[in-house]
TrEMBL record:
PANTHER family: AMINOPEPTIDASE, CYTOPLASMIC PEPTIDASE PEPQ-RELATED. GO terms for molecular function: aminopeptidase activity. This is Aminopeptidase P family protein. Residues 146-348 form the Peptidase M24 domain. InterPro entries: Creatin/AminoP/Spt16_N, Creatinase/aminopeptidase-like, Creatinase_N, Pept_M24, Peptidase_M24B. Residues 8-138 form the Creatinase N-terminal domain. The lineage of its organism: Bacteria, Bacillati, Actinomycetota, Actinomycetes, Kitasatosporales. It comes from the Bacteria. Keywords: Aminopeptidase, Hydrolase, Protease. It holds the Pfam family Peptidase_M24. It comes from Streptomyces goshikiensis. Residues 187-213 are annotated as: Disordered.
Length: 368
């Protein structure tokens, strides 16, 4: 992997040079991890004209939450209490006589930006923008392998929950059990706070689990994800508890399933982000649910659970191969409940079989 990180930093160095910047300062944790292999708390990465260095407040531990550092990367552990790694990196840029430094203005606070100017007044600061995020968009096969394992872990955790007794248990209890099962199966932790919604709470996007207990006849919506080596996936399913589903539940489920299938089938290289959103959204909109829909149909996943691209009506851009995304349409009927179906997939060309489905738990409407 060391060669991979060096290559990634080399690509960023070339982009900076083309924009007239001698060096880049990376402070956003996911971007630091992408380029360095690890992101200790508060760490800052200096990608210099010819050499790179990670500045941090403590020696990297190699623990799962930080990642494993590129062994060929120079590390500077700051000894002064309260020293800012970003400011130390800016000082080093001045020492190596870089005349300009591209920084992540969307992540740096105003105070840190001012501190950089004060420590290196002769250094011209430019905005790096979303250069690293754009570089992260297309995943290599090792990254996709991590996502695939994360999806397998999430599928296992969900599958085991479905085999247990659910009636009478609270949403909060089920969410905690799912997160424990994720870790039991090898996850570093949950990819995001697990959502469990029952009855009138079902189908709500990012519902925070409550003390409501599961009852017979409820819709049960579960949305969870695993974090494996920093890479995060997402899966969401809706089930019926205890009895055969009512007619309205079948009708609503079939509608959301059709929307989700349309979104999945639209995932082809070259498809506009908004076209994927429209494919799923139009199915629900035509059935009269347009006003209640989420502002997006899906989003990218990787080192963050919600990253580019955004599959939304106004999103600009087109899909590339090897971009992992979610497709997660849903409908919530206030006071009654709803349905949400969520998968993580990787965009693949038709010649390779089309989109690769990573989360494979059945989408059949099961009565549990």
């Amino acid at each position: 992997m060391s060669d991979v990180y060096a290559t990634r930093r080399g690509l960023l160095r070339d982009r900076c040079a083309a924009a007239g910047n001698a060096a880049a300062l990376i402070t956003r944790p996911a971007n630091v991890r992408y380029l360095a292999g690890a992101s200790p708390p508060g760490a800052a990465l200096l990608v210099g004209p010819s050499d790179d260095m990670l500045f941090c407040s403590h020696t990297p531990t190699g623990e799962a939450d930080e990642g494993r550092l590129d062994e060929h990367l120079r590390v500077s552990v700051l000894s002064a209490p309260g020293a800012d790694p970003a400011v130390a990196a800016g000082d080093m840029a001045a020492v190596v006589r870089a005349d300009s430094l591209a920084v992540e203005e969307h992540h740096l606070t105003v105070a840190r930006h001012r501190a950089l100017r004060s420590v290196a007044p002769g250094l011209r600061l430019a905005d790096l923008g979303l250069s690293v995020e754009q570089q992260r968009l297309v995943k290599d096969e090792e990254e996709i392998s991590c996502l695939r394992i994360a999806a397998e872990i999430a599928d296992q955790a969900l599958g085991e929950l479905l085999e247990s007794i659910l009636v009478g248990r609270t949403e909060r209890h089920l969410a905690l059990e799912l997160e424990r099962r994720l870790v039991d199966h090898g996850a570093d932790g949950p990819a995001f706070p697990t959502s469990v919604g029952t009855g009138p709470n079902s189908g709500r996007s990012r519902h925070r689990p409550s003390d409501r207990r599961v009852e017979e006849g409820d819709f049960l919506t579960v949305c969870l994800g695993a974090n494996y080596r920093g890479y995060r996936c997402e899966i969401g399913r809706t089930f019926v508890i205890g009895t055969s589903p009512a007619d309205w539940q079948i009708e609503l489920y079939d509608l959301v399933f059709a929307a989700q299938r349309a979104g999945r089938e639209a995932l082809v290289p070259g498809a506009a982000y908004r076209e994927v959103d429209h494919a799923a959204r139009s199915v629900l909109d035509s059935a009269g649910h347009g006003e209640a829909l989420s502002p997006w149909t899906g989003h990218g996943v990787g080192l963050e659970i919600d990253e580019d691209p955004q599959l939304a009506p106004t999103a600009m851009g087109k899909l590339d191969a090897c971009v992992p995304v979610t497709v997660e349409p849903g409908v919530h009927l206030p006071g009654r409940g709803g349905v949400r179906i969520d998968d993580t997939l990787v965009v693949r060309p038709e010649a390779d079989g089309g989109p690769e489905l990573l989360t494979i738990t059945t989408k059949e409407l099961l009565a549990l």
